[in-house]
Design a protein that fits this description.
The complex is a heterodimer of chains A (274) and B (292). In chain A, 70% of the residues lie in helices and 0% in strands. Chain A is mainly α. Chain A folds into two domains: 78 residues, no CATH class; 146 residues, Orthogonal Bundle (MetI-like fold), CATH 1.10.3720.10. The longest helix of chain A is centred in the N-terminal third of the chain and has 32 residues. Chain A is globular and about 80 Å long. Classes of the chains: A mainly alpha (274), B mainly alpha (292). At the A-B interface, helix 1, helix 3, helix 4, helix 5 and helix 10 of A face helix 1, helix 3, helix 4, helix 5 and helix 7 of B.
Chain lengths: 274, 292
């Protein structure tokens, strides 16, 4: 029974902590549901006497959030698909074969992990403009098609397979693509999942690059769309409207997180390596 | 195996290599060269790049504004990272174990990680608002009625950025410590406990060294994150008032896209990459020494 008081104290402390951490999101949710006629300065900031979805309807009519969603999904899907494909090919070559210059090539690829692409904003902007891809989804996605992180992770995973296995398969008349897709990739499920999840969380939330490389709603993803919304003249300090827009941008992924918590957490753990 | 030359491996690495060359190595070279030229799109004389040697660097380091930005970034990193490290570690200790309901508390601490930084900052915008901002209301509870406008106050704007980045990242970093604690050999701790090492001594003497690797890793993640993320600057302060809350990457954006000064933007890019590399190498050295 000695441990009862410390346990109670621990709960009390944890409760206070959780309340502090959850306040912003909870407030935003409450604010987004507050009827526009009831100003925040009057009465309770958290609890309005009524709830309304009016802010959501208005936010959706002011900016094309549906398009922003489609753009974000397209951009993230393009990046993940090409990273999976290109990194699998490169990692397979680097793990399975010895060839002249393989070490240099691997080192060059790894350099990408030392220098965050965000820092190379200015020259990459020029390159994308030169390619005629400014303000397009390929323009946002292209710089991320080659991934050192994914190549590294997959190569590590492939190296755990004995080379003899591949050689035996080759003698049996197995083509390289059969080797890759039927022998190597099926053993690399964990690495593939890490790549998908970390890329998803990084590029879904990426902001500065999509902001500078887009100028119209044609290609703008959610993050860039939200900041444009907050800076629209007529929005001003309409907190209900702002919160509704924030929730529209945030909630779907948040709900997905609540459902697939374990997978998300694994993804975040592996994304730290990047 | 395979003495003869084979084209296949080269074809397989080609796409990844090509993209890395095009979007990491080539831009790196371009920035290094570009930083040596005066190039300003809005000044007729410099619309075509003019060689200036290290002129961009020397003028930057004589510019009070750039020095201010460097000081901001240094201060931001020096306050944010130790705070994040200490708190995420303590939270991991607090949230490790089998206590009933712990999953909920972990979720409460971790959830900001899932929100995009732009969303997080937009939510916090209200908290810093003069008059009825929640932050000021909370402070008033403690009898404090001081500065009202957080993001517009030169000495508080940077603090507002730290606060948001802290709230957003503390749960993310906690995750790594938590994973470290959970994979750590429980028997080692039990043995220490039986030897009579308790509480704080146990933490300092046993747990900390065991997860030192984790700490170094977390420092690196936090540091690179602090350099890469300026989303909250865009939402909350736009670097103001008078550049007191501009961080390096934000300043880089301003130079390139607001002032159209490409030469200086390139020079700032070089400085930023050098800072990141220096940190990575130093961190690597330290961790190697600890390995021995």
């Amino acid at each position: 029974m000695r441990s009862r008081t410390p346990r109670l104290l621990r709960y009390l402390f944890l409760g206070l902590l959780a309340a502090l951490m959850l306040t912003p999101l909870f407030w935003a949710l409450a604010a987004s549901l507050r009827p526009a006629e009831i100003p925040f300065a009057s009465g309770n900031v958290f609890f309005a006497p009524a709830l309304s979805l009016g802010n959501y309807a208005k936010a959706l009519s002011l900016a094309p959030f549906g398009t922003y969603y489609a753009n974000t999904i397209l951009q993230v899907a393009a990046i993940i698909a090409s990273q999976l494909l290109f990194s699998s090919l490169a990692a397979f070559a680097l793990a399975r074969y010895r060839f002249a210059g393989d070490r240099i090539i691997f080192t060059i690829i790894l350099m990408q992990m030392m220098i965050p692409t965000a820092a190379l904003l200015v020259p990459n902007f020029a390159t994308i403009r030169l390619l005629g891809l400014y303000d397009s989804i390929p323009g946002i996605a292209l710089p991320f098609f080659g991934s050192a992180f994914a190549t590294f992770l997959l190569r590590q995973s492939f190296l755990s397979l004995p080379r003899d296995l591949g050689d035996a398969a080759a003698i049996d008349g197995c083509r390289w693509d059969q080797e890759l897709f039927h022998i190597y990739l099926p053993t690399a499920r964990a690495a593939l999942a890490s790549i998908v999840l970390s890329s998803l969380s990084f590029h879904w939330n990426d902001f500065l690059w999509p902001l500078v490389i887009t100028q119209s709603d044609r290609a703008r993803p959610l993050t860039a769309g939200l900041i444009r919304f907050t800076q629209m003249g007529e929005i001003g300090a309409q907190w209900g409207l702002l919160s509704a827009a924030t929730m529209i941008v945030t909630l779907p992924l948040f709900v997905a997180f609540l459902v697939f918590q374990r997978q998300f957490v694994q993804g975040y753990l592996s994304s730290g390596i990047k | 195996m395979g003495r003869r030359f084979r084209l296949l491996p080269y074809l397989l690495v080609a796409p990844t290599l090509l993209f890395v060359l095009a979007f990491t190595l080539f831009p790196l070279a371009r920035v290094l060269v570009g930083s040596l030229f005066k190039h300003r799109l809005n000044v007729p004389r410099y619309q075509v790049p003019v060689f200036a040697g290290l002129g961009n660097f020397s003028s930057l380091f004589q510019d009070p504004e750039f020095l201010q930005v460097l000081a901001n970034t240094g201060l931001y990193v020096l306050i944010l990272i130790p705070l994040l490290l200490a708190c995420s570690f303590l939270l991991a200790l607090l949230l490790d174990g089998q206590l009933r309901g712990l999953a909920f508390f972990r979720l409460a601490v971790f959830h900001p990680t899932v929100l995009p930084m732009v969303s997080a900052a937009t939510i916090w915008l209200f908290f810093f608002t003069p008059g009825y901002g929640l932050w000021n209301q909370a402070l008033r509870l403690f009898g404090y009625s001081g500065p009202q406008n957080w993001t517009g106050n030169p000495s508080l704007a940077l603090g507002a950025l730290v606060l948001v980045a802290f709230w957003k990242n503390v749960g993310f970093l906690m995750l790594f410590f938590l994973a470290g604690l959970q994979t750590m050999d429980r028997q080692v701790i039990e043995a220490a406990r039986l030897d009579g090492a308790g509480g704080l001594r146990l933490v300092l003497g046993m747990v900390l060294p065991l997860i030192r690797r984790q700490s170094l890793f977390v420092t690196t993640v936090a540091f690179i994150g602090a350099f890469q993320t300026v989303d909250h600057v865009f939402v909350l302060t736009q670097g103001g008032p008078s550049e007191t809350s501009a961080l390096l990457l934000y300043y880089l954006w301003q130079l390139r896209f607001e002032r159209l000064d490409l030469g200086r933007a390139n020079a700032v890019t070089v400085i930023m990459i050098l800072a990141l590399l220096a940190f990575t190498i130093a961190n690597f050295r330290v961790s190697e020494r600890h390995e021995k």
